[in-house]
Design a protein that fits this description.
By secondary structure, this protein is an alpha/beta fold. Helices cover 29% and strands 24% of the residues. Among the domains are: 13-21 and 30-163, Rossmann fold (3-Layer(aba) Sandwich), CATH 3.40.50; 210-310, Rossmann fold (3-Layer(aba) Sandwich), CATH 3.40.50.980; 418-514, GMP Synthetase, Chain A, domain 3, CATH 3.30.300. The chain is built from 16 helices and 25 strands.
Length: 521
């Protein structure tokens, strides 16, 4: 065994790096909420210490998972920081998930602590206790709940737990093409290295350099809002104007006081629909960043025309954090609409065809990546992990793209059967699995079709068993009772048969073309 070097033994806890970047004046405001509440940098440090002390007092095993399904709040962010600080593993869950989905995550991740809203405590605690979780706390957006009550009795100083580069910081569940979600294991080094690269690449300004102000309008249970946005602000000592949910009017009201905004394309589409979005509103803005789903060239161009700003599009995923970005600094090149820019420093990105040959300039193939941000593997799924990495250590993203002569990467599609709707991933296999179980259904196919608001939405096409008459509205209602709302197909059709190719495989491309438009039926 190799003897650890001095560097490898150093405390590499991500919180330590974030804390070191706090501004000197800890009494300055770090976060301001939409209802005017202000948190200083000292408040962030003390409150996360109290929560970390609470977690530490529970005597949890090493590597314990802290599963959190709560509404967006500053306290939820503090719980994330506290989890890092105490050295445990943060496991955020979309608030839209319902009981069957939560049961799977809790069963799979076996968290030692579950934090949910008081409204959901009944059913969530039942599932958690059944799965062996010993601690269930509540946390509500109005700062009530047992988590904060208990933390109020804890000390506000906490020594940051010693963690190495390779230790887990978070598990982010991403849906799988087989219908079952996989937990992407991200380490302290994955998250810190990516945050540092983005700080430099996007020119985040420290307070002494004119201070950035970020409008934080994204949910904090995914990579975009939790890591890219929060780490970016904390690592540069920038203030956040914190919105508990995206409301275009709230964003526009805050634009004159802000310098950075991040959003999925739907947020830009909805902002463009607001008459208040004009050059005066964005006069102090430095940077608009988009990602998580393809940004339409129309949105990119309209934004330029309306605001005079060129959106910077970047590309990433839960398993890898951020991979590519259009340039911020002019000397690196222009921001090109329709492209996701260049591989970020430290990211090795290649495109290979189906035979595994690296393609030439402008040729299309599967995107594979390697780099410090690439995750450690899927939680308790070694076979799936092995399947998704090449023999020489590249991660197969499942995205299809090309690189042009100047080095810009363009994503042209996906080899994985995935719908990205308003920045959320929806795996058709999961929805089809539920539909196929419904009485009277013979088979189903869920496909993604264009949508002007969400970019893409799901449409379900199904066939009935002989002699059965199916009601599409009842199918949708039944799905709504089981699955997170964003996964529900927006339209549903019952047909005599699904189109198949010579191999018997359903031809989803034909369904996509056929059901591109049309009423719910
Ligand atoms: C809401 N609805 C959606 C939806 N969001 N339908 C499809 N796709 C979505 N994304 C539906 C609800 O089911 C509901 O339907 C109706 O819209 C209104 O719900 P709502 O909750 O009021 O919606 P709204 O608040 O308007 O939310 C829309 C949104 C939200 C765009 C603000 O979806 C959002 O915040 N998206 C961001 C997702 C994100 O952060 N992705 C990052 C992933 S990280 P009904 O029928 O029930 O009324 C990643 C890696 C990377 O991808 O590169 O960043
Ligand atoms: P997630 O699993 O939620 O992290 O989603 C990751 C996926 O989002 C990627 O594999 C891409 O398919 C998609 N994605 C992220 N950013 C972009 C982008 N800028 N353009 C197109 N697709 C994107």
């Amino acid at each position: 065994m190799q003897k650890p070097t001095e560097t490898s033994k150093k405390n590499r806890n991500l919180y330590l790096a974030l804390r070191a970047a706090f501004p000197e004046k800890l009494s300055d405001i770090a976060v301001e909420t939409e209802d005017g509440l202000c948190y200083s940098w000292l408040d962030l440090d003390r409150a996360s210490a109290m929560l970390a002390n609470l977690l530490a007092s529970l005597l949890l095993p090493d590597g314990a998972r802290i599963a959190v399904q709560v509404d967006k709040s500053v306290e939820a962010m503090l719980l994330y920081l506290a989890t890092l600080r105490a050295g445990f593993v943060y496991l955020p869950l979309n608030v839209a998930y319902q009981s069957a989905e939560i049961e799977y995550f809790i069963g799979n991740a076996e968290p030692s602590v579950v934090v949910c809203t008081s409204k959901n405590f009944g059913w969530v605690s039942q599932l958690a206790f059944k799965a062996g979780t010993q601690n269930v706390f509540t946390l509500n957006a109005d700062r009530t709940g047992s988590l904060l009550d208990r933390a109020a009795c804890c000390a506000d100083q906490h020594p940051v737990a010693h963690r190495l580069d390779d230790d887990l910081a978070a598990i982010i569940y991403t849906s799988g093409t087989t219908g079952r979600s996989k937990g992407a294991m991200l380490t302290h080094a994955n998250l810190l290295s990516n945050a540092e690269v983005l700080r430099d690449y996007w020119g985040w300004r420290r307070p002494q350099e004119g201070a950035d102000v970020l409008i934080h309008a994204l949910p904090i249970f995914h990579v975009h809002g939790l890591f890219v946005a929060i780490h970016g602000a904390l690592l540069s000592g920038s203030k956040m104007l914190w919105l508990s949910r995206f409301d275009p009017a709230w964003v526009i009201e805050r634009l004159p006081r802000a310098t950075v905004f991040m959003g999925v394309p739907t947020l830009y589409v909805r902002l463009l629909a607001e008459p208040g979005l004009d050059r005066a509103a964005v006069r102090n803005m430095r940077l608009f960043i988009a990602g998580s789903a393809p940004l339409l060239i129309e949105t990119f161009t309209q934004w330029q025309e309306r605001t005079g700003h060129t959106i910077l599009e970047r590309y990433g995923m839960s398993e890898t954090v951020m991979l590519t970005s259009n340039p911020y600094f002019g000397e690196q090149g222009n921001r090109r609409g329709g492209t996701v820019g260049f591989p970020l420093p430290g990211v090795s990105l290649r495109i290979r065809d189906q035979e595994g040959r690296e393609v030439v300039v402008d040729e299309i193939g599967g995107i594979e990546v390697k780099g410090a941000g690439v995750f450690k593997g899927y939680w308790r799924m070694p076979e799936k992990t092995a399947e998704d990495f090449t023999n020489d250590g590249y991660f197969r993203t499942g995205d299809v793209g090309r690189i042009d002569e100047a080095g810009y990467v363009t994503i042209v599609g996906r080899s994985k059967d995935l719908i990205i709707s308003g920045g959320y991933n929806v795996y058709p296999a999961e929805i089809e699995g539920y539909i196929n179980e419904m009485p009277g259904v013979a088979e189903s196919a869920v496909v993604g079709v264009e949508d002007s608001d969400f970019g893409e939405v799901g449409v379900a096409v199904l066939t009935a068993r002989p002699g059965v008459v199916l009601d599409p509205a009842a199918i949708i209602a039944s799905l709504k009772a089981t699955l997170a709302n964003f996964k529900i197909p927006k339209r549903c059709y019952v047909v005599d048969e699904l189109p198949r190719n010579a191999m018997g495989k359903v031809q989803k491309n034909l369904l996509r073309a056929q059901y591109r438009t049309g009423p719910f039926r």
